[in-house]
Automatic annotation (TrEMBL):
The keyword Nucleotide-binding applies. Residues 26-212 form the Thymidylate kinase-like domain. GO terms for molecular function: dTMP kinase activity. InterPro entries: P-loop_NTPase, Thymidylate_kin-like_dom, Thymidylate_kinase. This is Thymidylate kinase. CDD domains: TMPK. It is an enzyme of class 2 (transferase). Residues 1-20 are annotated as: Disordered. It catalyses: dTMP + ATP = dTDP + ADP. Belongs to the thymidylate kinase family. It comes from Actinomyces viscosus. Its EC number is 2.7.4.9.
Length: 262
């Protein structure tokens, strides 16, 4: 696991997470295991009785479901139209689902966010990473996650995993050059915003990947809790986050006991 200063300033201002909630996004190419890791993390949050929301882009709202169908299961979409459709989905998703959850103090787990657009449309589609990033920041009023977990995997292995899932969507059908360019752009994003990203090697067994993901989230929760404590409010949120840290510690201890017995 590699922990990774804010990027150079651009025309779109970046805003802090609204309210006491915690916003965590998961990124990476298709087939790296984002859905699996989000579910493992969600189970821990449930065990700690922490208010949390699982969502995805595109498709986290009713409007998003229709946009997802057009983007992933429809016919050809011109690259600039593709970028604008993702931005439209993101604008509605943040305004109607993510911000309200953060404002009430929930943990939001998002399967993809603006970094996917920067990597897919900005780099792999050659539309310009900064231009696409600025478009998304405008659409979301500058909202960035508190933590972004990049599941980094070998594109060939990830491609074999997507093949095993059955019929591929429009983006999963892209060729090797596209997948390599996508991975390179994600890793470039880590270099420009190392304070937000954590890179996790996704080519290992699921439990090993989960250990690193949970470690990164615990660190983010502790940073977030320190901010809330400094603010002197949101005690209910703090108690929930402390319970999550305890649940994560129990999971780690159980894993260590199992290894020592094997």
């Amino acid at each position: 696991m590699t922990t990774a200063s804010p990027p150079a300033a651009s025309g779109a201002p970046v805003q802090p997470t609204p309210g006491p909630g915690l916003f965590i996004s998961f990124e990476g190419g298709d087939g790296v295991g984002k859905t699996t890791q989000i579910r493992i993390l969600a189970d821990l949050l449930t065990a700690a009785d922490v208010d949390h929301v699982l969502t995805r882009e595109p498709g986290g709202t009713e409007l998003g479901i229709e946009i997802r169908r057009l983007l992933l299961h429809g016919g050809h979409v011109a690259p600039r139209a593709e970028a604008l459709l993702y931005a439209a989905d993101r604008a509605h998703h943040i305004a109607t689902r993510v911000r309200p959850a953060l404002e009430r103090g929930a943990v939001v787990l998002a399967d993809r966010y603006l970094d996917s657009s920067v990597a897919y449309q900005g780099a792999a589609r050659s539309l310009g990473p900064q231009e696409v990033r600025d478009l998304s920041l405008w659409a979301t009023e500058g909202l960035l996650p508190d933590l972004t977990v990049l599941l980094d995997g070998d594109p060939d292995l990830a491609e074999r995993r997507t093949t095993g899932r059955g019929a591929k969507d429009r983006l999963e059908q892209e060729g090797d050059a596209f997948r390599v360019a996508l991975r390179e752009q994600f890793l470039t994003l880590v270099q420009t915003e190392p304070e937000r990203f954590v890179v996790v090697d996704a080519d290992r067994p699921v439990d090993q990947v989960a250990d690193d993901v949970i470690e990164a989230v615990v660190a983010a929760v502790r940073r977030h809790g320190a901010r809330l404590t400094h603010g002197g409010a949101h005690q209910g949120v703090l108690l929930g986050l402390e319970a999550f840290v305890e649940a994560a510690a129990r999971r780690s201890a159980a894993g260590s006991d199992q290894e020592s017995r094997s």
